[in-house]
Amino acid sequence: MTDFNWCHGPNCHTHHTVDRVRGVKGSKVLRTRKVKLNQWNKDSFYSKFCSNSCYNEFANKYANQIVAIAPRTECLETPIEDPKRTKHSNPYHNWYETEIKVDETRQS
Ligand SMILES: [Zn+2]
Q: What is the DSSP letter of 11?
């Protein structure tokens, strides 16, 4: 079992950073980063991607295939109580807050 994944960013190996430079003089390359597995990233996509930009590049390139895993063909709804709007004020200004509470009695 390995303790790392290669970054899945489709362009990881093209980003110009010195930590990606590998190889001997005269035949240097930019190489895909390794992502070390640890207790913080083991259950998240951060175990597969070295950065948010690599994750975004993957998601943008493969978005249609990703959503095909679990297509959303209709909207979802969360039952809520009627929202309560409350006025607040201090010596400088007034503002309103609207409280939105989930209606637990209508949960399926
Ligand atoms: Zn990467």
A: T
Both tokens of residue 65?
């295939």
How much distance in Å is there from the Cα of 77 to the middle of ligand 1? 36
Structure tokens at 51: 């950065």
| Adjacent-strand bridge partners of 29 | 22
Distance 64 CA to ligand 1 centre (A): 21
Q: Report the separation in Å between the CA atom of 54 and the middle of ligand 1, taken as the mean of its atom positions.
A: 5
Other CB atoms within a 10 A radius of the CB of residue 81 amount to 13
Chain-centroid distance, C-alpha 16: 23
Percent of the residues in the chain that have a pLDDT greater than 70, as a whole number: 98
Q: Are 17 and 32 in contact (CB under 8 A)?
A: no
Rounded-to-integer distance, Cα 58 and Cα 15, Å = 14
pTM: 0.74
Check if the beta carbon of residue 96 is closer than 8 Å to that of residue 87.
yes
